[in-house]
Amino acid sequence: MDELLLTLPIIQPEPAAPARPRKPDWLRVKLPVGPEYAKVRRLVDEHKLHTICESGNCPNMGECWGAGTATFMILGNVCTRSCSFCAVATGRPNEYDTDEPRRVAEAIQLMGVKHAVITSVNRDELKDRGASIWLETVVRVKQLSPTTTIETLIPDVKANWEALDTMIAGGQEVVSHNIETVGSLYRLVRPQAKYDRSLEQIRRTKAAGKRTKSGIMLGLGEKKDEMYQAMDDLAANGLDILTLGQYLQPTKRHLEVAEFIHPDLFSHYREEGLARGLKYIEAGPLVRSSYHAERHVNVPI
User: Fold this and answer.
1) How much is the pTM?
2) 176 is in an annotated binding site
3) What digits encode the pLDDT tens for the residues 120-178?
4) Quick one: which residues bind [4Fe-4S] cluster 1 (predicted)?
5) 23 in a domain, yes or no?
6) 120 is in an annotated binding site
7) Does the residue 107 lie in any domain?
8) How far is CA 128 from the centre of its chain?
């Protein structure tokens, strides 16, 4: 009897997923330790304050808190936007604390902060985008700590220019609004924002007489010519100060890092931006929008 031959299909192995880029040595940071860090930690907890340092998983939290400074986040810790890079929780906010301006001002006074950075989540569901809380917070900080300088890192007001006018009217020295990335990546990175609208917000802020600031994350897939164009656009719309830092994926649910940018390229972008009319650029893998913020108050513009 002839032997029965069985032919099995050849199963091709699935192609291996591309390896994620390995985090380079220049992105290592020290763990937060020390008495000054512990002091800030205690005050933040006692006053039930939100900080973007924690919510945003900032790599510089140890350095900044160790120096007795922090970036305070007002209007809760739930954002109405769902940006694909951000670690802040997304959802329907249920917190609107009208006493928050007082608590933030008192904490800043207790900490003896010389330069305070205040930011917030997006509150698109509020008619004034939270502008009244913004204004009262800055005013109260100035009342309790008149020598403290303030930077406000404000969200996109969705073209509610009346809300913008209120947000920036409290006497802060620097008004920052981050465009975050180049125009071609907005649908991927900031799906509920618009590149041109953020530029207009910066332009209107400058027209109101404020020192303007913005930030871009690198490593999301942007090209060099797109970075040059973004810096040109910012300069043309009245930007004074720019921060450039490396995007770091906060969780597996967020956008993966496309590339880890070498410090030399950060230096190149810094020189390019200055040549294109920007007044001051903070650039480096670990730079975040609040990094060395106290220096930005005195930048000649």
Assistant:
1) 0.85
2) no
3) 998 999 999 999 999 999 999 999 999 999 999 999 999 999 999 999 999 999 999 99
4) 53, 58, 64, 290
5) no
6) no
7) yes
8) 21
